[in-house]
Amino acid sequence: MPTYNRADLAFERGDGAWLWTTDGRRFLDFGSGIATASIGHGHPHLVQAIAEQAARVMHTSNLYRIPQAERLAQRLVDTSFADSVFFGNSGAEANEGMIKAVRKYHAENGQPERNVTICFEGAFHGRTLATLAATGNEKYLAGFGPPMPGFKHIPFGNMNALRDAIDGTTAAVMVEPIQGEGGVRPASLQYLRDLRAACDEFGILLALDEVQTGMGRSGKLWAHQWAGIEPDVMSSAKGIGGGFPLGAILAKEKVAKHLKAGTHGSTYGGNPLACAAGNAVLDVILGEGFLNHVDRVARHLWRGLLELAGRHPTVIEGIQGAGLLLGIRLLPEVSNGEAQSAAAAEGLLTVAAGMNVLRLAPPLVITEAEADEALRLLDRAMRRITPSQAKDAAK
Q1: Which domains does the chain have, with CATH numbers?
Q2: Which of 134, 226, 232, 382 has the most crowded Cβ, counting Cβ within 10 A?
Q3: In which pathway does it act (predicted)?
């Protein structure tokens, strides 16, 4: 179907942060399949885990116990706020399940009228009907009929707007610690703390969408840990499987206990192969010094991007984001599509995001040398798209 606007690139192999096309060209991958190839391409530990599990048993369904899922769930619980985990296959599924969980929580506690989730302008939560409604982007909603009810949108970062929006129908606040698709906009750590306090004050749930920000991308396992808070329920996907489809809902017991048998489910979710991949990724991310490495390289890249912005004031308006989820905010004279194409022409893969931002989300295994190479390629790409004197005069 004509669903995707694909670049004319086909990759046949990868190694770490590098990809090779079928015609032999090499690219430095600072997109990671949209923040998904968390431990890079062809990681030997992940490859071995998938191959060995595939040779044993790939799928049995949730009619039976799945030891690989039990192990992965326990490890996620041990390293997070959560008491239990539900496995699905994608971020959209994880967010759908999270929305169901917060509604079920209030219904089971005698307040079924509390079924509205407060979301934020600039959010992105998925492409299903419910997650489209939670996203609230008119461009994505157009043509799919009336949006599913149960969502209210407010400006990102505005506590007064949040307090004004809370009423007797409010079930939860659903927020990304860093808006990825919406322009790589981080919530301030104080804002996250204020959201937690407001949810406690009004008896509603804090639901965090860490699909893109979790699994080490921020330099901690979960981005909200920088703020020193805990959500009541959280979604995860993308980097959790290192490229293998896997999603998860992590929840405190007070929420999880209401998703009894028959209330939610997934045929593929948490199957032996997916969870073997998830455990292998976690082996790497929880390895000694790994998250410190991510934080160190991220800060190095951040400093380099600030210098890049200083060299290209007619193209770059600013740098934003956190960890290894960073954005180059471009001036209106150039588009992020132009910048993405220019970077690809120089051998660097990036991802466009909202608000005319060029998104950088490299594998977490990148080195400082590879960050420097990306900065060199970005410098060349920015020179390609620098507005000409004639363009300035015409403006």
Answers
A1: 11-36+289-384 (3.90.1150.10), 45-286 (3.40.640.10)
A2: 134
A3: Amino-acid biosynthesis; L-arginine biosynthesis; N(2)-acetyl-L-ornithine from L-glutamate: step 4/4
Q: How far apart are CA 254 and CA 233, in angstroms?
A: 10
179 is in an annotated binding site: no
Hey, how many other C-beta atoms are within 10 angstroms of the C-beta on 269? 26
Residue 181: name the closest of 340, 327, 9, 3 by CA: 327
33 marked among binding-site residues: no
Answer whether residue 389 shows pLDDT above 50. Answer: no
What is the pLDDT confidence band of residue 300, given thresholds at 50, 70 and 90? very high
Closest CA to 62 of 275, 209, 253: 275
> How many other CB atoms are there within 10 angstroms of residue 323's CB atom?
25
Annotated binding residue 212: yes
Q: What percent of the chain has pLDDT over 70?
A: 98
Q: What is the 3-state secondary structure (H, E, C) of 339-375?
A: HHHHHHHCCEECEEECCCEEEECCCCCCCHHHHHHHH
pLDDT above 80 (res 394):
no
CA distance 169 to 240: 33
Q: Output the pLDDT for position 388.
A: 63
Is 381 annotated as ligand-binding? Answer: no
Cα 359 → chain centroid = 12
- pTM value? 0.95
Would the annotation count 127 as a binding residue? yes
Question: Could you tell me the sign of the dihedral formed by the alpha carbons of 202, 203, 204, 205, in that order?
Answer: positive
Q: Across residues 95-99, what is the average pLDDT?
A: 98
- pLDDT for residue 142 is more than 80: yes
Q: What is the mean pLDDT of the chain?
A: 96
Q: What is the mean pLDDT of residues 264-284?
A: 97
For tokens 């017991």, name the residue: 253
Closest CA to 186 of 197, 198, 175: 175
